[in-house]
Amino acid sequence: MTGSNQPLIALGQSAIRTVPLGVGTWAWGEKRFWAYGQSYGEADIAAAFAASVAAGVTLFDTAEIYGRGESERLVGKFARQTTAPTIIATKYMPFPWRFQAKTVHTALTASLQRLGLSTVDLYQIHAPFSLIRNQTLMDALADLVAEGAVRAVGVSNYNAPQTQRAHEALARRGVPLATNQIQYSLLHRQPETNGTLASCRDLGVTVLAYSPLAQGLLTGKYHANNRPTEDIRSRMRAFQPAHLKQIGGLLDLLRGIGEDHGGKTVAQVALNWLIQQTGVVPIPGAKNADQATSNAEALGWALRPEEVAALARASNAHTH
């Protein structure tokens, strides 16, 4: 089973339906952090987009700050070139110099221009720290929904109380909070312990899980003698030999479970673990067609409950 015949789920209480997997596009056009233009370029990510859509994965998440707008331009270009329906999500960054509600409208207008679209499916507040009052900020989002420029609204990196306040502010305008995009993976399970995941479930808010493969740690690709060298990960503690050695047991378990499911990869098992969590849609990155196709193979099958529990136990020692 591919994503094309995977049952669809709703993003929160919105009308948007998607398979429980998307594509994160931070690396698309991002030279500073991800060395775009060196080992991969536009042709590679165009192929990743096409492969994702072909597999039934049609949710693409971008942001105005990714590649200084280049990610939006690329996502929009690819979306306009396909005849398949796509779901495009982008984000507003509440920079400190944005202290008036009108900046939300201005930022969206610029994002739509880069995307080449008249409407965006999901518009999210990128971070919870804004100089604009919460109710004013949410009213600005509700206005965009009323204008037809945005189909659904979400937030990103919001904790449990912040999610609750955003939900309440939008509810006053009759607009549901569709999503909260947060870091969540087998190596980052903080949302389970800080109340954010529970809050989202209670409120009917879908979690979009970014870095679901822990920026590549959960692919099984990297080890002490094979570490990322050209992008931001080369400087991260998590990719140093000592840490790579520490997570070896978890990777071995992922690998063994994958073999029991007909040869699924470490990454596919890690993504499926998230898909089995209620109300969670992982959005892994993909820099080429092979990665996109591999990600999509996380759909169409399910870990057994005892495997989900075993992976949770094994990851407890490494989660942060």
Describe the protein's architecture and organization:
With 320 residues, the protein is of the alpha/beta class. 40% of the residues lie in helices and 13% in strands. It is built from 13 helices and 10 strands. The strands form 2 sheets. Strands 3-4-5-6-7-8-9-10 form an 8-stranded parallel beta sheet. A two-stranded antiparallel ribbon has the order 1-2. A hairpin with a 6-residue loop joins strand 1 and strand 2. Helix 2 runs parallel beside helix 12. It is globular, with a radius of gyration of 19 Å. The two termini are 33 Å apart. The relative contact order is 0.15.
Helical amount among residues, as a percent range? 40-55%
Mean pLDDT across residues? 93
Spatial order of strands in the largest sheet = 3-4-5-6-7-8-9-10
In the predicted model, the low-confidence regions spanning at least 5 consecutive residues are: none
Could you describe the largest sheet, including whether it forms a barrel? 8 strands, parallel
Topology of helices and strands:
Blueprint: E1 9-10, E2 17-18, E3 23-24, H1 31-34, H2 42-54, E4 59-61, H3 70-81, E5 87-92, H4 102-115, E6 120-125, H5 134-147, E7 150-156, H6 160-171, E8 177-183, H7 190-193, H8 196-203, E9 206-210, H9 241-246, H10 248-260, H11 266-275, E10 280-282, H12 289-296, H13 305-315
Parallel strand pairs: 3-4, 4-5, 5-6, 6-7, 7-8, 8-9, 9-10
Antiparallel strand pairs: 1-2
